[in-house]
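Q: Convert this sequence to structure tokens.
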Amino acid sequence: MGRKYYAVAAGRVPGVYSEWPEAERQVKGFAGAKFKGFGSRAEAEAWLEAPVHAKKERNGAKTTATEKKKLPVDPGAVIVFTDGGCINNPGPGGYGVVIEDGLSEREYSGGYSLTTNNRMELMACIVALQKLEGSGRAVVVHSDSSYVVNGMEKGWARSWRARGWRRPDGHPALNADLWAELLRLAESMPVRFVWVRGHAGNSRNERCDVLANTAARSRSLLPDRGYRP
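A:
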């Protein structure tokens, strides 16, 4: 059985826990406790950051207005693939980007000495859109991070920004510095974010993974000044 992570949205101390006894102490006997187990820390963090846990559970499979309002696929859109990750979490991390604009294919990568998986997933998207800023082209970003894709496509990031970068429970939204920059870029161009399954044989996603891992192992990494342990 793989390792599990437990996201506590409502409890004595909300957060993500890697051991059930720790998580149990936060929710046992706590009125209105809300928690859920996941197979990865990234999934647990993404669920924890979601602005409407209870509403989502009550509505089940209903499609929201935000989900229905998808941008049409532009046949001339720039295709972007991104990936990010780190060795341990937190730890040395890297990101990788592949941009296909119909004429050429470009690759970008970078990393930091101490960061997190989610920050590197966000940074990959930021770097991609920075390279395309002012191009006037529609962009489709493919990412295997549900944290990033849901944050942008389901309006989570905008809801955190509207609350002064706080979640509905009043706790600070993580990675506000990167979300703010990603929103700025996304609001300056026609862009949509599409989730793709990681490590499923997609050559461009796999290439981004190689770029990110290579960058994370570089010996000349600078600190991620926006990361707060």
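Strands lie at 5-10, 15-17, 34-38, 78-86, 91-100, 105-115, 139-143, 191-195.
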